Amino acid sequence: MKKERAIQIVRLQENLASIRKIAGWTAEDLGEMLGVSKQNISNLENGNTKLSQAQYIAVRHLIEYRAGQKPKNPALTRLVSLLVDRTELQGKDYNSLVSTAKNIGAAAATMDNRALGIFAETLIKACYTRASDLTEIEGALKDVCESKETRDWTADIISEGDEEE
Question: Is residue 100 within 8 Å of 129, Cβ to Cβ?
Fold first, then answer.
């Protein structure tokens, strides 16, 4: 169990910048909530400072809190679970997921919460398929972000989600 927690701490630190952006926080926001400076957050994200177990626990609680706020962000919790908790994900599958999370984080600033949630959910569902599917979806994301077009597939995803509820 100690080894698994150590892996989780390392993975949270490796993905902290993406997770923070998906949560809708600036480095300054996260630092303020944790009681540290923006520079401390930057040092954690860049690997200049090691994430402590206490910081890990605090960040995880903030993520759970943010995911439950309105507007809800369940994709955040799922993505963190895949990136951090699923320690059995290794190699190409894990690296594809990390890359996908970075792209979701990059898109977060340009999308409203609903669109980001739909997009993140779509990518998370794709994570349960082949890594090659993730690469294809990432390409579609880049195209959408660069063109800033509204895609028809979002309506399909929304209607699918409504049917499931």
Answer: no
Residue 99's identity, in one-letter code, is S
Model confidence at 159, in pLDDT bands (50, 70, 90)?
A: very low
For all residues of the chain together, what is the average pLDDT? 76
CA distance linking residue 98 with residue 104, whole number of Å:
10
Give 2-50 pLDDT, tens digit per residue: 899 999 999 999 999 999 988 888 999 999 999 999 999 999 999 999 9
The SS3 call for residue 156 is helix
Residue 69 above 90 pLDDT? Answer: no
Q: Where are the alpha helices (DSSP H) in the chain?
A: 2-14, 16-23, 27-34, 38-45, 53-68, 74-80, 91-108, 113-127, 131-147, 153-164
Q: Is the Cβ–Cβ distance between 117 and 76 less than 8 Å?
A: no
Task: State which residues form the domain around 11.
Answer: 2-164
Q: Which two tokens stand for residue 156?
A: 């399909």
pTM: 0.70
Per the structure, the count of domains in the chain is: 1
